[in-house]
Amino acid sequence: MEIEYVRSRFIKHFDGKTGNIYASPGRINLIGEHTDYNGGYVMPGAVDCGIMAELRPNGTNTIMCYSIDLKDRVEFKVDDPAGPRTTWARFIYGIVKEMQSLGVEVKGFNTAFAGDVPLGAGMSSSAALESCFAFALNDLFGENKVSKWDMVLAGQATEHKYIGCNCGIMDQFASIFGQEGKLMCLDCNTREFEYLPFKAEGYRLVLVNSCVKHELAGSPYNDRRRSCENVVKAVNEKQADKHAATLRDCSWADLEEVKPLVSEEDYTRAKFVLGEKDRVTAVCAALKANDFEKVGEMMYLTHEGLSKEYEVSCEELDFLNEIAKDCGVTGSRIMGGGFGGCTINLVRDELYDNFIAVARERYKAKYGIDPRIHDVHIGNGARRIC
Fold this sequence. Notes:
The chain is globular and about 60 Å long. The mean pLDDT is about 95. It has about 375 residues and is of the alpha+beta class. The strands form three sheets. Strands 5-4-6-3-1-13 form a six-stranded mixed β-sheet, with helices on both faces. Strands 10-11-9-12 form a four-stranded antiparallel β-sheet. Strands 2-7-8 form a three-stranded antiparallel β-sheet, covered by helices on one side. The longest helix has 25 residues, at about 265-290. It contains eleven helices and 13 strands. Helix 4 runs antiparallel to helix 5 (about 170-175), helix 6 (about 220-240) crosses helix 8 (about 265-290) and helix 10 runs antiparallel to helix 11.
C-alpha cells in the first residue's frame, strides 16, 4: 500500500489538508484454528499487507469516513447512539464507541482508508481495520494512554456488539502485537504469549486462495461456538466441583465422561478443539527445535480435523490439501474460519515452483477457477507511519 495513494485520496475528498497516516496488518495463523474463543492456543503472525488510513481532527462532532476501495462515504456523529447502517462504517463506529468507553475523548475527524489484504483469503481485514482505527484514535485523542491489550479487546467488542460475530481475540491480537519475522504463541485463556522467530530456512509459507466462499444458512461460526459451550456446560453439570469457563479447562477424560450427555455433533466438535490445543503446543516445541517436518505433520492433522470433525472445510479446500500432499508439500491446512478461503502451505524451496504450477493446473481443470497465490512475509503490527 502506497502512502501517496492514500494521501491523495484524503486530500481530494476532504479539505486539502493532511493528517496522520496509520497502518495495521492482516494476519496468518500457522496453526490453532477455532481455538481462540475456546481459551486455547493460537500461533498467528502479522503480514506485510493490511489497512492504511489517514486521519485528521476536523473541529466538529462529526466523523467523516471515506472508503477508497469502495468509493463510498459515510458520516455519523460522535455521540450517535445507533450508528451508521453501512457495514464497513460500523467497524469504525464500534471502535469509536469502545475507545470512548476506555476514556478516550474522541472528537470529530476526517478519514480515508484503503486495504491491500487479499479479499476472501481469511487474513482478517476486519481486524486490521479495527486495529488501525483503535491505534489511531489512541494516538490522536487518547495521548497513548490505552494499552495494546485494551485496543485488542476494543476490536473484539466491536465484532461482538456492532457486527454480530462472536469472535475470539486472535485476529486483533496479531494485528496489534505483530513483529516482523516473528510468529506468536498466544494463550487465549491467560493472554500470555511469546514471540517465536520464524527462521524457516529452506522453506516458504504460501497461501493458495480457493477463490470461493460458501454462504451457509444461519451462522456456522456461532453454531460451532455454541457446540463448544454446550460441552462445557455439560462438564460443569456433571462435576459439581468443576468450574470450566471454556474447553481449555476441560480434559480428554472430561469430554469422554459427558459423551453420552451431549449430541454427537457437539462431542465431535469439542474433540477437534482439544486435539488442536495439543497440536499447537507440539508445533511450538517443533519450531524451537527447527523441526519443520513435525510442524507440517501437525498442519495436515489440523486440516483433517477441520474437515471431518469441525466440518468447516469444503470440497475445494480439501482438493487443494490433496494436491499439496501429492506434491510433497511439508504441511498444508485450511486457514481461517473455513467454508472457503485459503490453504496455508509450508513448502520446501525446491518444491515451490512445481507445487504452484500443479495447484493452478489441477484446480482450474476441476473448478474452472484460477487460484490466487500469496507468498507470506511476516510483518509489523499497528503503527503510525507519518
